[in-house]
Amino acid sequence: MSYLKASLAAAAFVVAVPVAAQDVVYRPISPTFGGNPFNSNHVLGVANANNNTRDPRATSTNSQADIFARQLQSRLLSALSSQIVDAIFGDNPQESGTISFGGQTIEFFRSLDEVTLIIRNDETGEETRIVVPLFIEVD
Predict the structure, then answer these.
(1) Is the full-model pTM beyond 0.70?
(2) Does residue 106 fall inside a structural domain?
(3) Which of 6, 35, 88, 138 has its CA 20 to 30 A from that of 96?
């Protein structure tokens, strides 16, 4: 009978001890399997290195005239965007306006708390809306 009591006491002690465990999660080490999101550059680099196809419509002309034309277009668009920003937020801001160039139309409307810009592609009809909040200074 004492053997039975000793067995029951040992079983009660074993059952009363708390047990801790955690989930086992497999994470691949090789960046090819994409286990770590920081390995995406490696995977993209390997894919680009193995890619032998080229876009037949792509033009890779880098003559001096092409480079000059791209730089000139960039400067003109930058100057135009500066004029639009001055018209909206400058010393004498306008309530609304429309600017058309190169197959695109830019409209802007000013309300009490925001400025809405609508950029419309005249050829495709695509439209992009940008809403800029106005911050009112309180003295």
Answers:
(1) no
(2) yes
(3) 138
